[in-house]
Design brief:
heterodimer, A: 135 residues, alpha/beta, 3 helices, B: 98 residues, Hypothetical Protein Ychn, Chain: A
Chain lengths: 135, 98
Amino acid sequence: MSVTKKFLYVNRRPPYGTIYAWEALEVVLIGAAFEQDVTLAFIDDGVYQLTEGQDTTAAGFKNFSPTYRSLGDYEVTKIYVEKESLEERGLTLDDLQHLTWEDEDDDWAEKDSIKLVSRSELAEIMAGQDVMFNF
Amino acid sequence: MALLHLVNKSPYERNCLDTCVAYCREGDTVLLIEDGVYAAAKAGKAAEKLSGLDVAVLGSDLAARGIAQDKLVDGVKVVDYGDFVDLVEAKDKVQSWL
């Protein structure tokens, strides 16, 4: 018998300086493959993971940012970005990738995955989870 | 004695840039690399820490993080690895604020 739990992955690191962001994405995809109820939160420097226009050609390491666009296909549809963290870094939603998912209960309508939430709203979401993973 | 200061950590996560700035003297240059480049984004809160300093930023690390060059603090120079070597040679010492 399989039990579905609510998993929250909390991302607080920028994408390339350490391995945290890349490893988090790997673990998220594993969790989603086991059909758990997956939610992602991006706080502090974690918001940098989702920025658009990352080009690692000259830097010489792998650009894994396109992988976030596949999350919708794994039914990872709840991606929360903390408003305060974005603002502190001078970013807006327009600076982030446009991530979507297709809702099979709504004639496969394309819907936004990213939701901008305040710190207190995110605290509420956190409180409602079964398991938290921190990266 | 002029120093080249290297900062490779995000100003929003660590205090490396704060300490670096406090130690900067006339004639020194701050080179932002890796996650240090986030400090150079004009719209961010950390941008003000760079005021009055001679600051360079590594272009390849900017591009990797999706920061467009027109979003940088005014006066910040974008450099490549060759310029990085030139800076190391031009200064008397290099201080890495790890």
